[in-house]
Amino acid sequence: MLPQHTQGEQVFEGYLQSQSIPFEFEKEHPGKSKRPDYTIEWQGQTILLDVKDFDPAATPLSGFGQFDPYTPIRQKIDEGREKFKQFKDYCCGLVLYNESRPLIMLENVDIMLGAMYGDSGFTFPVNMDTGIGDASQLQQAFLGRGKMIRPNWQRAQNTTLSAIITLVRIRPHFLELLDLVRFSPMSQSIEDSEAAIRREILDFNPDLEVGRIIVWHNAVARKPFPTTLFRGDYDTHYGIVRNENGVVEQSVTYEGSLVPDKLRLRR
Questions:
Q1: Could you tell me if 17 and 27 lie in one domain?
Q2: Residue 202: how many CB atoms within 10 A of its CB?
Q3: pLDDT digits 0-9 by tens, 158-167
Q4: How many CA atoms lie within 13 A of 77 on its CB side?
Q5: What is residue 196's three-state secondary structure?
Q6: Cβ(228)–Cβ(251) under 8 Å?
């Protein structure tokens, strides 16, 4: 790897190579002053990707306090929006990587979609005369501060970013072992659990580390992110679906066959 590469760029290039996806680093695009980190030609379409690393925390966490899990992610979305400002006619993806900063929840459905569309919360009708709410009609909702669209906006504001992309490194065999130990009878030792999982995974290696990607498709994107890109055995797409009433929703539209159970996305 070239010395100027960030940790996230190194991990991303390792992932691309593992999936045999050709790429160009910091390719110059005619008439553009900025150079997104990666350019991928995919099924006749040019895909631009920029990797953003989260800096380590300035001071260690201690004691009690408040923390807004959306703020650091939204700051990166703002940086990505600025980077892609000249590329509105391209499909653009913002890749987020966190090596060691605590409380950056890049695999959490509510936090990631909340950062995109508005703080995750709940609504229910309240009788204004009695002040009594009807909890039976409780519904999950995005309550504001989103970076793609907000309830009081007449139109979407961030349509250039086709997707936010979570990039992480996982140890899949070790995670499978942890699950087996957790659900095994109390009488079964760790050694017995490891022997059992070795019978299921012939090439079992608890130190195996792989790159994993989660694609969070932007429901208001001008250029939809391709559903066929980043579909490795450990990857997930949280895509756009339209239910039987025509309402647009987001849910898991692809999940790799080797994703450990504890990493599977649910909502």
A1: yes
A2: 6
A3: 789 999 999 9
A4: 29
A5: helix
A6: no
| Cα dihedral 77/80/86/90 (nearest 10) | -90
Q: What angle do CA 159, 71, 4 make, to 5 degrees?
A: 80
Same domain? 111 vs 178? no
Residue 79 to residue 94: CA distance in whole angstroms: 9
Show the domain range for 181: 172-206
d(CA 170, CA 206): 11
If asked whether residues 190 and 222 sit together in one domain, one would say: no
Asked whether residue 113 is assigned to any structural domain, the reply reads yes
Task: Say if residue 192 is in the same domain as residue 101.
Answer: no
pTM comes to: 0.81
- As a whole number of Å, the CA-based R_g of the chain is 21
Structure-block tokens of residue 193? 């659990």
Amino acid letter at 264? R
